[in-house]
Specification:
Elements (H helix, E strand, L loop, with lengths): L7 H23 L8 H9 L2 H7 L2 H14 L1 H20 L2 H13 L4 E4 L15 E5 L2 E12 L6 E7 L9 E7 L5 E5 L8 E11 L4 E2 L5 H37 L1 E2 L2 E2 L4 H30 L4 H27 L9 H8 L10 H15 L38 H5 L69
Parallel strand pairs: 1-4
Antiparallel strand pairs: 2-3, 3-7, 4-5, 5-8, 6-7, 9-10
Helix pairs in contact: 1-4, 1-5, 3-5, 3-6, 4-5, 4-7, 5-6, 5-7, 7-8, 7-9, 8-9, 9-10, 9-11
The structure holds flavin-adenine dinucleotide (FAD).
The site of flavin-adenine dinucleotide has 23 residues, from strand 1, strand 3 and helix 11.
Length: 482
């Protein structure tokens, strides 16, 4: 990737993915039941070697995957993303045994993963989670509820965030890998506006032991934040893919549809609307790519860039899909029309992984901290969201107390969009060094999907990420009040 564009190999890979999504994956998605896990679709993503890429590729590749799949099949895109979200904590912080047990199955599409953080009373305010882990012999028993959990209740395992220490804020949360067949665990599906598979979970004294802990006890909030830091820009990529699909449909329709003696495209207001849709989509795309590239570079300003990318892309997609509906007229609202589908799909990403308002707060806090006007990057004002809310997904670096030492080289390379408020120690908290992502945005895609070719790098499922072998990070985000 050059500064402002993908390279030819990346462009070709995206085209292949769009074709694959439309021709191979969309029929599988259409055969599934809305709101339920579509196992044949997940299996196909595994057979095509795409799930593996979520763990072995860079953040930019993850974005390209999500954007391209979303263009042809939002269900395929979401199935892929949810496997990544649910299993990333295992990949990032799991023991060898946990990784060997689950990651190859997830990558093959045989096991379905889920990320269970949100609760009925703790959504944006994720640090307020109450699911209790009560000590029980060498382990714990989990009691409480999780809500709005994608892939629940049909997942094969859940990454569950539970409170192991009362009154300890984000430092009293532990991440557990909970197989779905544990006694005391039950769940129910939720019907939502979008076709997203989602449900609620009930924990009635579910036993978990030391072998089920992901990372360290009481340090699970960090696991959640690191996962979300990777995935937040890619939510923007999902939105860009939907926006592009809506724009393409609008172009085709307004060129073909005649009214008042000519095609709609001859009406200036129509042409200008299409131009606006395209311009905003491209701007969102560039911001998403920049955020992902910054992540891959280990840049210090990743949190603000990710927040901007997620915010702009999801809001843009909502505008573009709505405009496309308007240009189509009534037919777009007919059940089964692409735009009717996108209209339902495009709404949720403005809420999950950081509501738009929360992203704005994260951006503003970073701006003021960088300008030396914030009270303290590590101590957000009372009532302000911790960078670590599930959605916000602020990474540890987002609230680092390290004094502002000016933009790091990585920040400058990335254009210095937001001056780094965190010091160089933040660098490298993104994709662990040594992964394929270390090649940054210029890394080449692997062989075409469908070949099943699997890289044997250090981040292949089953391999331990180097970053986890280093000293534990102590991010102030874990101390942030919510
Ligand atoms: C389709 C879908 C899939 C999901 N998947 C998962 C999943 O897999 N795992 C999981 O753990 N969770 C998941 N969630 C839950 C999601 O993370 C929460 O919905 C999100 O955190 C918002 O929480 P909430 O819905 O409780 O809204 P609240 O936190 O109650 O917020 C409601 C609204 O209040 C406003 N608001 C909140 N905080 C602030 C603030 N600080 N500043 C300004 N305004 C604010 C915003 O407008 C926000 O939309 C999913 C949600 C959806 C819709």
């Amino acid at each position: 990737m050059s500064v402002f564009s993908l390279d030819p190999a990346q462009i070709a890979w995206c085209a292949q993915l769009r074709t694959l999504a439309a021709e191979r994956l969309r029929p599988l998605a259409e055969a599934g039941e809305p709101g339920r896990v579509n196992r044949p679709l997940v299996a196909a993503l595994g057979e095509l070697g795409l799930l593996r890429r979520v763990f072995t590729g860079s953040a930019l590749e993850l974005c390209l995957l999500r954007e391209s799949l979303a263009h042809g099949s939002t269900e395929a895109e979401t199935a892929l993303a949810l496997q990544g979200l649910g299993a990333a904590p295992v990949h990032q912080a799991g023991t060898g045994a946990q990784r060997e047990r689950w990651l190859p199955e997830v990558a093959a599409g045989r096991a379905v993963a889920a990320f269970a953080l949100s609760e009925p009373e703790a959504g944006s305010d994720a640090a307020a989670i109450a699911l209790k882990a009560a000590p029980d012999g060498p382990g714990w028993r989990l009691s409480g509820e999780k809500c709005w959990i994608s892939n629940a209740p049909e997942a094969d395992f859940y990454t569950v965030f539970a409170r192991t220490a009362e009154g300890a804020g984000t430092r009293g949360i532990t991440a557990f890998l909970v197989p779905a067949d544990r006694p005391g665990l039950s769940g129910s599906p939720l019907e939502m506006l979008s076709p997203h598979p989602i449900g609620a979970l009930a924990f009635d004294g579910v036993p978990v032991g030391p072998d089920d802990v992901l990372g360290q006890a009481d340090r699970g909030f960090r696991v959640a934040m690191r996962t979300l830091d990777l995935f937040r820009p890619s939510v923007g990529a999902f939105a860009v893919g939907m926006a592009q699909a809506a724009l393409d449909a609008a172009l085709a329709h307004t060129a073909a549809r005649t009214a008042f003696g000519g095609p709609l495209m001859d009406l200036q207001s129509v042409a200008h609307t299409v131009a606006e849709m395209a311009t905003r989509t491209e701007a969102a795309r560039l911001l998403v790519y920049a955020a992902a590239a910054a992540y891959d570079d280990g840049a210090a300003d990743v949190p603000a860039r990710s927040a901007m990318a997620k915010l702009l892309a999801t809001e843009t997609a909502q505008y573009v899909v709505d405009a496309a509906v308007q240009l189509h007229g009534a037919q777009a609202l007919r059940r089964g029309h692409l735009l009717e589908h996108l209209y339902r799909e495009v709404r949720a990403p403005r809420i999950y992984e950081g509501a738009t308002e929360v992203q704005r707060t994260v951006i503003a806090r970073r701006l003021y901290a960088a300008a030396g006007r914030g009270s303290d990057a590590a101590a957000p004002p009372a009532g302000a969201p911790a960078a670590g809310h599930f959605p916000t997904g602020g990474a540890p670096q987002s609230t680092s107390a390290t004094p502002d030492t000016g933009p790091s080289p990585a920040t400058m390379r990335a254009g210095g969009l937001v001056r780094a408020a965190a010091g160089p120690s933040d660098t490298g908290r993104g994709r662990p060094s040594g992964s394929s992502s270390a090649a940054g945005p210029s890394s080449r895609p692997e062989p075409p999907p469908g070949t099943g070719a699997a890289p044997a790098g250090p981040h292949a499922p089953g391999a331990k990420p180097p970053a986890e072998e280093g000293p534990a990070e102590e991010g102030p985000a874990e101390e942030s009040p919510v």
